[in-house]
Structures are given as structure tokens and as C-alpha cells.
Amino acid sequence: MREYYEFRFSGSGGQGIMLMGQILSEAAGAYEMKNVVQTRSYGPEARGGACRSEVIISQDPIDYLEVSKPNFLLALNQEAFDKYLWDLQENGTVVIDPDLVTVDPERVKGFNVFPVPVTAIAKNQVGMPVTANVVALGVMCSVTGVVSRKALESAVLAAAPNGTEKTNLKALAEGYKAASGFNLDQ
Amino acid sequence: MKRNDSIRVWTGNDACAEGAIAAGVNFFAGYPITPASEISEVLARRLPEEGRTFVQMEDEIASLSSVVGASFTGMKAMTATSGPGFSLMQENLGFAIEAEIPCVIVDVQRVGPASGVATHPSQGDIMQARWGTHGDHPIIALAPYSVRETYDLTIRAVNLAEKYRSPVLLLSDAVIGHMSENMVVPASDEIEIINRTKPKVSPEEYKPYLAVGGEVPPMASYGDGYIWHTTGIIHDETGFPCTSNPNMIDFQVRRLHDKIAFNRDDIVTVDMRQMDDAEIAVVAMGSVARSAVKAVKMARDRGIKAGLIRLVTIWPFPDEEIIQYTSQLKAFVVPELNLGQIQGQLRQTVEGRTKIVGVNRIDSKLITPEQILESIQNEVKA
Fold it and tell me: Which residues pair with B171 in a beta bridge?
């Protein structure tokens, strides 16, 4: 089958969930010339609460605009995990921050669950807590290989505010490092 | 790694704003409203960069007022809003139709009625677009189904407004406006730009509404030395009221309609897919058309002769293009994010010759391909 991925990033407003989707879309769309569609849901018209950003990446033109069977879920808070797990594909991959999300093993049977403390890594190893989303991007791309590391680095650099380029690259590298022990059994 | 600079990953609203820039829009006035605000946000930055004018007005009534005023002076003028704001614009929209003032109104549709559901999509403004302003009037409305098409149709809307001296509506929706997609930005020499026809006669001889049949009367700009009168009252070719002359009233209102009707082949665009042998036709527009494309493929995979009639032009309604298929079809399936606005128009067009079934959602969610497929399968069995 031709390449077709569905990603769902979820968490709270302010965690950089929308930006993650934007950077991945840019990496896949403008650097690797694949087709991308990103949709967003902000929850009830306000910041905070559960928000999500979904990205479809495909070699073929994308018809239906919404994610219906995600291959991948990132959950950076409990509400997002509880709300957005239900339609994950069989053998799908879940990345959670174990400091923010408690996983009931019964609920994730048949999925690959990778706990990565992205918030703590961003704070302690990178030294900038707001880069947790970039750490998570590194984890996600390391696990799925959906875009090349080079493309992702370029897209992160293009999105990084002036003066934060090195910090963001470090965050991305920490994400790849944290995921290096994970293998997908699909 | 180098990015491919001809590709942009834009939202529909980004593409609308950039399409406006490419089309030569040099005046935008608007009032923020979800899910259309990003069009204003982008243009508030981009128009001044290009040396053009952006104004945030106090409300939507003033937004369209200033757009119409700017167009009188020769500017290519546009505004963007959503359902509640579009309601407020109806009076000035009627004025612009009657006074024949080119302008573009973008309506990024959200769930209604009233304040509705601000962040979720709808196609509930189809009939407001057609009949929201009072009186017998023609209108042009286009509906994009992708980010790239939002760019292209914004340019086309500006061009049609200029060409036909008429307001043109671009009916986007919250899905198309807010989603991002990769698109190739066309080079500027690939983009056709149409400018309104200016009078060739002297200011003394100029009559601002002199036209017959499908002609479009040339329009002088205020400030060009042509002093001309205009009004929303039915007027004759001089622009002065003709309200005690029934023949002239009849002639002028019909002329407005003829201007669009005689040129409908230039205005109407329909995207037909796999219709040659189709027994079931899905009629769809905007974000729902993406679900429809998928549903038709799924049906074909199951050996069902399904086809797609995608409405790019909504008004004037593509009746001739649709009627040619009525005898070969078992049914039309009409998915839309409302309770049957396109379906109602289609019933008028088809006049009972073919069965029509709707797939309708008003719960703020997009119609899925599976829902459309189910309806197609039911009609095959029926």
C-alpha cells in the first residue's frame, strides 16, 4: 500500500500542540513534497482544556479531510488521553508523558505505548520547558520515520524564534535519543 | 535541507488572503469573526507591505460600506466574515448589486442560526447567499473545496466582480478555512487579472448605467473626472431614479438579471467526475465535496457506477450542466452541512424527473465518506 499516515497530537492549549502539527506539515509538505492536510480543534472556544492537531501525510492526493483511524497519538494531558484514544488503529502507537498521564493497561491492549517524560526532558536536559513539543516531535518521528530527520530539523529551524535555534535542535535531538530504545512491533 | 519554495503549507484562510493579494485587491475592510479572522489578520500585515490599504471597521455593516465606497473610487475591494457578519452585510450587498459596484465578500461559514457554533463548519448560508438581501436580484457565489482552490477562486471572484460590475460571494467553511494543505503557488504570469471596463466616452457623454442585454455598463471611478449619480433606488441609465416609469423599472431590474444570465456559461463551473456511465450522482460542494470524492471512489471499488457533480459555482445554479444527466441516473445523493438547501434548489432544477436523497448533518461535524457511501448503496438497491 502507498504511504498514508494519520497523526493526532493532543494536550492542553499552550503546550504547542498546534505548532507541532504545523512543523510536521511543513517538513512533509514543503521539504519532502508529500501531500499533507492539517486540521485543528481548539475545544470550547477558549485556551486550556483539551486541544488537538491532526495531520494526514500521504503520497496520493488526500480526499477526506479528517483523521478517522489515527496510526499515532501523542497525549500530553490526561483529558486528551482519555478523549482521543478511542479510534486509534490496531497496532497504533501512543506516546504519553508519564508525569502527566496515567495509563490503564487494559485500555491500551493491542497498542504500542511509549512513555516519554518530554516535559521533564525539556526542563532538565534542554533547559527550556516550552520545547517539550519539539522533544515530542523528535520522539514521534524517530518512532514512525514519517519524515527524514533532516527535513524535520529544517522545519523546526524555520519555525524557531531568533536565538532559539540551537535550543530547539537540542530538544529535537533529545527526543530522538529518548525514543532510540523503542521498536514498533507492527 | 532546502525547502521547495514554490510550495506553501497554508490554511484556506491564508490562501484566501494571498489570493486577494495576487488578484490585485488593494482595499480590505473587515471586522474579526471566527472562523474568518485569519483572513483579516494576514491582510492586516500583507496589504501594508504591498503599499495597499487595510482597515478594521467597527462592525460588518461599516466593513461592506467602506468596501463599496472604495470600489467607487476604482479600488479592488474585499471583506471577509462569517454567517452573523454576513447577515449584517445584506443591506449593503443589495445596494452594491443595484448600484453595480464590484466587490468580493468572503463568507467562511460556521454553524448557525444566530451565533451558532463559532469554531465548527456549516453550509447553512447557501440560501442566505442567494436571497439574504431583499428584492429580485442576481448573485454570483463560488465555493472552494481545497486550499489551492481557495486561492484560485478568490482571484476568480475578484475578476468576476470586475468583469460583471457585481458583488461576488466566496462561500468557504470552517474546515476549508482552518485546515492547512500543501499547495503550489502559481507564478504571477500564470494568473489572469481582469480589470473593470472604463468609459471610452467623454465625461459629458457618460451614462453610468447605459447597457442592454447581457452587456456590462462601463464604470468610471470617482476621482477620474467623471461626475455621476448613483442610488439604490431603481434608476435609469443616468443613475437617477425612474420610479414613476414602470417600463424603465421593469427594463432595469431585468437588465441586472440578464447581465449575469446571458453570461452564465462564463461564470458557471462544475467539476464532473466519472459521470459518463454514472447511475448515482453525488452533488456536493466545499469541504463535503472532499468526503464525496472519497465516497465515489469507495463506491466504484464496490462496482457501483457512481459519479460526482462538484459545484464550484453555486449561484447562478449549474442547472443546465445537471439536467443533462437526469435520464441516465437512478438518483442524486446530496450531502451537505445543512438541512437541504442545495437539495431544494436541485429539486427545482430536476422537476421530479429523478429521485433526490439528502445526507444532512447540522451537529457541527463533517459528513464522512461512509455516510455518503451508505446512501449511494441504498439507492442502488432501491
Answer: B107
